[in-house]
Amino acid sequence: MIDNFVRDLHLLWKADSLIGKIWLTVTARRLGLYAFAGLIAVFGLGMINVAGFYAFEASLGPVWAASLVALGDFVLAAIIMLIGRSSAPGPELDLAFDVRKIAIESLQADALDLKATIDTLTQEIQDTKNRIVGIVHNPLDAATQQLLIPAALSIIRGLRAKKDRA
Fold first, then answer.
1. Which of 11, 2, 3 is nearest to 104 (CA)?
2. Which of 19, 17, 166 is nearest to 92 (CA)?
3. Structural domain boundaries of the chain?
4. Do 77 and 70 form a contact (C-beta atoms < 8 A)?
5. What pLDDT, in 10s, does the model give residues 45-59?
6. Cβ neighbours of residue 49 under 8 Å, at least 6 residues apart?
7. Rounded distance, CA 104 to CA 39, Å?
């Protein structure tokens, strides 16, 4: 019973650590994609802006050319951030949650069994205590109940058995 309780606690710990690892992996992946999006935005502002600026400067003027190139970079960075945001854990997270749920239910059942065993043991200790108190306070009554009555019942059964055979 205690072994089952410890096993279920260990299973719950494993399920929780698996859930933590999965979420940590997803968070690291998202963070990496966000960092990559930021890096693209920085390089975009540095390289493509210069090239786009020179391409649009002749037709739009210097201000509008710079604005159009910067807007394109921010749109690209936003798209990459959306991809990173939509990154979600796979079905292994659902499996880990199922294992966790089973472990908790099993722990609850083991705890109820343990409580019932402790309640039974407590009742047996209380009954033993009451018997000892009864023997100490009234030794003759206790001897009558524990020895004389069972002996008398045994004799009566024996006489009935002889009578039935005869």
1. 11
2. 19
3. 2-136
4. no
5. 787 778 878 888 888
6. 66, 69, 70, 73
7. 44
Q: Other C-beta atoms within 10 Å of 101: how many?
A: 12
Q: Inform me whether the pLDDT recorded for 41 exceeds 70.
A: yes
pLDDT digits (tens, 9 = 90+) for 104-155: 888 788 888 888 888 888 899 898 888 777 777 777 676 666 777 777 788 8
- Cα separation, 70 vs 119, in Å, equals 74
**In sequence order, which ranges of the chain are alpha helices (DSSP H)?**
2-43, 49-60, 62-85, 91-137, 139-143, 149-165
Q: How far apart are CA 65 and CA 44, in angstroms?
A: 14
Amino acid code (one letter) for 108: Q
Structure token digits, residue 160: 């009935």
Structure tokens at 100: 């966790």
